[in-house]
Amino acid sequence: NAGVTQTPKFQVLKTGQSMTLQCAQDMNHEYMSWYRQDPGMGLRLIHYSVGAGITDQGEVPNGYNVSRSTTEDFPLRLLSAAPSQTSVYFCASSYSSGLAGESTDTQYFGPGTRLTVL
Amino acid sequence: SQKIEQNSEALNIQEGKTATLTCNYTNYSPAYLQWYRQDPGRGPVFLLLIRENEKEKRKERLKVTFDTTLKQSLFHITASQPADSATYLCALDLLGGGYNKLIFGAGTRLAVHP
Questions:
Q1: Strand A87-94 and strand A76-78: pairing?
Q2: Are the beta carbons of A33 and B96 separated by less than 8 Å?
Q3: Which of A79, A114, B34, B77 is the most exposed place for a label (fewest CB within 10 A)?
Q4: Distance between alpha carbon B25 and the CA centroid of its chain, in Å?
Q5: Which tops the pLDDT comparison, A62 or A102?
Q6: What span, in angstroms and rounded, lies between the C-alpha atoms of A116 and B57?
Q7: Residues B42-66: what's their mean pLDDT?
Q8: Out of B42, B44, B97, whose CB is closest to A105?
Q9: What pLDDT is stored for residue A100 in this prediction?
Q10: In 3-state terms, what secondary structure has residue B84?
Q11: Which of these, B82, B98, B88, B81, lies nearest to B6 by C-alpha position?
């Protein structure tokens, strides 16, 4: 398994440009999320999905759109990039086996996309 | 207001000693609490999960405690090694069930010196 993959690794945008950050997982996980990480702050949840066709907002959704047409893919779209969106973006996926005594709810994170908006 | 706090200063310890990291939170009632390791330029890696009805959980050299009255979790690494040097993140899972709605602390950087 490749786990959670993200592309691109690095991206530089100009203010006002749009782009899509790609995220894919090959573990058949139902749950997927996008977080951003800024210096000195914890990861903050942007959007999450509990299955194909179902998405919801997290803590900092403004300026971002998501869709989940398949179990495997969860792209994050920046509609009109702003300097405040300069950050490192992480995609994560998870499942819950529900088995007693098991370590369920493990989240698997991708390697991240480092985005700079000029 | 709701807050989750970890020691902002780096923790420096000698190899072989026990490292203890603290996670405090206010105005949350998490179902689970999770700990992650993050190395520079990499994504977080899941280490341990503890549920609200569990007091302690162990995995190899790692131990986590969870006190819902004090609203605090302690993360211990025994017999620490230089390879344990990293940033450690705690995260509150408000829903449980793997729904990925986590609230993260800013992390504590641990440096283990030979």
A1: unpaired
A2: no
A3: A79
A4: 12
A5: A62
A6: 40
A7: 93
A8: B97
A9: 44
A10: helix
A11: B88
pLDDT: which is higher, A23 or B52: A23
Number of residues assigned to chain B: 114
- Residue linked to tokens 């749009």: A18
Helix (H) or strand (E) holding B112: strand B108-113
How are strands ordered across the β-sheet holding A19-25? A4-7, A19-25, A76-78, A64-66
Chain-chain contact of B104 with A33 (C-beta, under 8 angstroms): no
Farthest-apart Cα atoms in chain B, separation = 41
Which is more confidently placed, B92 or B29? B92
Whether the CB of A33 is below 8 Å from some CB of chain B: the reply is yes
Give the minimum alpha-carbon distance from B81 to chain A in angstroms, rounded to a whole number: 24
CB A69, CB A52: distance < 8 Å? yes
Residue with tokens 């405690």: B65
Share of chain B above pLDDT 90, in %: 69
The rounded percent of chain B whose pLDDT value lies above 70 is 95
In tens, the pLDDT along A5-46 reads 999 999 999 999 999 999 999 998 888 999 999 988 889 999
User: Among partner residues B45, B48, B97, which is closest to A96 by beta-carbon distance?
Assistant: B97
What's the Cα-to-Cα distance from A37 to each of A34, B6, B49, B80, B88, rounded to whole Å? 10, 16, 21, 27, 14
Rounded distance between C-alpha atoms, residue B28 and residue B14, angstroms = 34
